[in-house]
Structure to design on (336 residues):
């Protein structure tokens, strides 16, 4: 695997893109370009890349393009304008399929060397801004935003009208046992604006440890669905050794985001059509109880989060608090 350096000319300025390798794809290159230009990958048109006589698809590896060192290409694309109103969805974003029916044989990518290399690169290069220092002995809760805690497609006068019911009560309760992290597949300025609009970043009953954006994600290839972007928890675990699969749980409305760590992900029911559903949606109330029930476990990997609604905990303490090692109590969760 060798490093590839590309010079991208855009809007009268040349940008040197160095954090790509021969095993990366065109989509990986677009994400690297986004870091320097702010132009989202879906809004980029790269001129000068050819594969078999035509413009390469996003899943084509850079090694196949046979680029020379410091190859110069041009980009056409428009950077996101500053947020005028966080609650109004962008007009030019297409509707997307929220999830894939990922079968067991399609999620066996978590130990692939090329993807672990990408995770290592994110651990090295992605800068995490600590908002509040992680607390000793706490578990980790990683939360998505769109359709998980916020209906980002509906329109309202204020963002709080689109907030999932019981959000602040949920976060307040979770904060007792969990450090809370936000991870959204959007840019950081969108994340910060939504957290401010929802009153999350200023709430005094709980605190966010840090937030991650789309730049911390990686691309993987599945035989059925091609190249997709995912949220590898290994990026967090590599940067913060106190967290691991044993004490981490992630809520997202899109199951494929868990593909690098399926054991740690819980697919939350998407919150849509807020005006119609906010009086009946109690997902966060039920999930709050689940988080509390599992908080004292020594190892979350024994859990099957797909069956979280059927979980019945034993009244037990952490192993370190037990009077002897001869106890045979075990949680009544169903293993995966």
């Amino acid at each position: 695997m060798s490093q590839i350096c590309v010079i991208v000319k855009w809007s009268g300025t040349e940008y040197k893109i160095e954090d790509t390798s021969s095993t990366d794809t065109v989509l990986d290159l677009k994400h690297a370009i986004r870091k320097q230009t702010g132009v989202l990958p879906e809004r980029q048109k790269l001129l000068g890349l050819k594969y078999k006589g035509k413009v390469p698809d996003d899943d084509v590896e850079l090694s196949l393009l046979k680029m020379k060192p410091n190859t110069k290409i041009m980009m056409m694309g428009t950077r996101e304008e500053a947020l005028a109103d966080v609650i109004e969805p962008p007009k030019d974003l297409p509707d997307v399929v929220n999830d894939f029916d990922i079968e067991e044989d399609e999620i066996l990518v978590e130990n692939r060397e090329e993807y672990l290399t990408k995770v290592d690169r994110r651990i090295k290069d992605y800068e995490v801004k600590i908002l509040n220092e992680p607390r000793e002995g706490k578990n980790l809760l990683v939360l998505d935003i769109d359709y998980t805690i916020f209906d980002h497609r509906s329109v309202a006068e204020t963002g709080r009208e689109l907030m999932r019911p019981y959000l602040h009560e949920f976060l307040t309760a979770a904060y007792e046992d969990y450090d809370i992290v936000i991870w959204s597949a959007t840019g950081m300025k969108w994340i910060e604006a939504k957290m401010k609009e929802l009153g999350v970043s200023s709430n005094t009953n709980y605190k966010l440890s840090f937030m991650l954006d789309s730049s911390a994600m990686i691309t993987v290839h599945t035989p059925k669905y091609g190249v997709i972007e995912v949220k590898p928890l290994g990026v967090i675990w590599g940067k913060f050794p106190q967290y691991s699969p044993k004490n981490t749980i992630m809520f997202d409305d899109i199951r494929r985001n868990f593909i690098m760590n399926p054991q740690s992900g819980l697919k939350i029911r998407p919150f849509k059509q807020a005006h119609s559903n906010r009086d009946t949606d109690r997902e966060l109330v039920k999930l709050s109880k689940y988080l509390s029930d599992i908080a004292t476990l020594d190892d979350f990997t024994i859990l099957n989060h797909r069956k979280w609604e059927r979980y019945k905990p034993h009244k037990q303490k952490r192993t370190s608090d037990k009077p002897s090692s001869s106890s045979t109590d075990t949680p009544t969760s169903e293993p995966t």
Helices lie at 26-37, 113-125, 167-175, 188-197, 234-239, 274-277, 283-294. The longest helix spans residues 113-125.
